[in-house]
């Protein structure tokens, strides 16, 4: 069976509830049963493609919480929905889109979401997945001991204007030190995904992360070079959503399978 489009889903069956933490309040959407996973949406928000990924995780046996810190949940991504969100995020103190060596207020909120989810789901901790604008937030959330697995898919913040921003890990030095400490002790493992020619999520950031986290940071790079065998466009960016096709052997599908296996390895209680 082949598929010409990325998997999508709706908000049907998802339970919406407000959640406050670290001085911030946003709605969260929850579904599923099993170990906990926090799925942070990409720009412009909880799109049908993000929900397609969320539903897949639910089907794989996870309790999934999707915070909604920006955008209109369930609305499709169009130029008209993306541009206003980008404009707002660029100037928001909550996200600090251009700052280097920065502690971002949103990551404190995400840690609170993760901790609350960990307290009521099986196992000793949860996983966090970030994508695009939110990719690095997953790693910054891993400062918290309740985060056992972090997935950074095409992390793009700070936006890559200049060499310092391209190589910045997406968190403050103190946060990076703590993440590296947890990785070295075996408490935390992380997975990074990106397209080889992605101009927004640069290889320099992955090199920074790999240098500090070592074997605890697994990197998956999908070939998007000119003439690549899969036919990924030159601007391919969203590994787990927009560019994924549910076609056997498709590189992005294999990447999603690895994410699920990684989460299961890290989060499934012994004997579960």
From TrEMBL:
<feature type="domain" description="Dienelactone hydrolase">
    <location>
        <begin position="34"/>
        <end position="153"/>
    </location>
</feature>
<dbReference type="InterPro" id="IPR029058">
    <property type="entry name" value="AB_hydrolase_fold"/>
</dbReference>
<protein>
    <submittedName>
        <fullName>Dienelactone hydrolase family protein</fullName>
    </submittedName>
</protein>
<dbReference type="GO" id="GO:0016787">
    <property type="term" value="F:hydrolase activity"/>
</dbReference>
<keyword id="KW-0378">Hydrolase</keyword>
<dbReference type="InterPro" id="IPR002925">
    <property type="entry name" value="Dienelactn_hydro"/>
</dbReference>
<dbReference type="Pfam" id="PF01738">
    <property type="entry name" value="DLH"/>
</dbReference>
